[in-house]
Amino acid sequence: MTRGRVLVTGGAGYIGSHCVVELVNAGFTVAIADNLCNSSAVCIDRLRIITGKPDAISFHLVDVCDSEAFEREVFQKYSEPFVAAMHFASLKAVGESIAIPLKYYSNNLKSIFSLLELMEKYKCFKIVFSSSATVYGTASVPYTEESPAGIGITNPYGQTKFMIEQILKDFFASMVKSSNPWSISILRYFNPVGAHSSGLIGEDPMGIPNNLMPYIAQVSVGRLPFLKIYGKDYETCDGTGVRDYIHVVDLATGHLAALDHLVRCHPTLDVYNLGSGNGISVLQLLKAMEEACGHPLKYEFVDRRPGDLAVSYAKAEKAKIELGWETKKTVQDMCQDTWRWQSKNPKGFAS
After folding, report:
1. In terms of residue numbers, what domain contains 101?
2. CA 148/CA 140 separation, integer angstroms
3. What is the pTM (predicted TM-score) of this model?
4. What would the pLDDT profile of 213-271 be if each residue is shown by its tens digit?
5. What CATH number is attached to the domain comprising 121?
6. 226 near 219, Cβ under 8 Å?
7. DSSP for residue 268
8. Residues tagged active-site
9. Residue 276 CA from chain centroid, whole number
C-alpha cells in the first residue's frame, strides 16, 4: 500500500533526486516535473535502479513556469490529488544571479506562482519549499530561525528565496481559516555536498561549477586543472570562506521528516534550518577531499567573488526538537561519497 503520490518539481536535479530516493524508500510514489535545464534524464533511470521500484517514479518533461503545460502534462494526468509537493525547481547559482538577475526573478517567482495556483485548483494543500541560508543576509552567525532574514542579502538568488518565503507566509495566512487550510514547511539549506552511496547519482552542474564541492570533485578527476579559491583574506581560521556543509542524503531525510510533520500537524507553517551547525573552511574541505581521493589537488587563490560572505553556519536545534532530525554523516562521508560519484562518472551523467 502506497502512502500516496508526491509531486517533486526539479526532481531530476541534485537535491531533488536524492529526495526522490528517500520518498520512494519511505513508501511514497513520486511524480517528477523537470525541464532538465540543469539536470539529465539519465538521472531518472538511475533513480529507478537505486530504489528498485521503477513503477513508483513517473517523469514529466515540463517547465514548471509554463502553467498551462504544467497543468496539462502533470496535474491532469492523475485522478487522485497529490498528497504533497516538494518544490526544488529554480535557478540557483549565486554568481550567475548577479550577472543575469531578471532571469532569476522571472524563473524563480513564476515557478512558485504556477505551482501554488495549480495545487489549490487540484486540492493539494501541503508543500515543502527549498529555501536557503542566503536569506539571512548579514545576520550574525550562528543563524537560528529567529535570526533577522531579508536584511543585507547580497545576491538576487537569495532575494528570490526570501521573496518566496514571504509569498508562502502571506498565502498561508490568507488560507488558514478557509475550508482548505494549508501546511507549509520552509527549509533553509546550508551547503549540500556529497552523493548517494551507490555512486549512481550526485551533483552534475552544467559548465564550470559555481559551488565548491563539485569544483573540487572535477579537479580530483582531472576534468578541471585546478581549484580557484575565491579570497584568502577573510577573518577566518585560514583566511578562506567558512560554510556549513551538509551531506545531501542528510538533507533529503530532513525533507522526509518535514513532510511527516506536515501530515501530523496540519495545518501549520514552519521554518527550519537544515545544517550541521559546524563551519568548515575551503582549505579544510580541500584537505578532506585529498584524503578521500588519495592524491593532492592543485589550487590557486583569486579575488573574492561578489556576493560571498566570510562565514555562514547554522544552528539547527529546532529541526532536532520538532522533526526528530539531525545530520548523521561526517565530512569524511561527504568527501568519500563525492569521490565515488565523480570517479565513477568523471563527466557526470554524460559519462
Report:
1. 5-196+246-277+316-323
2. 9
3. 0.96
4. 999 999 999 999 999 999 999 999 999 999 999 999 999 999 999 999 999 998 999 99
5. 3.40.50.720
6. yes
7. -
8. 157
9. 15
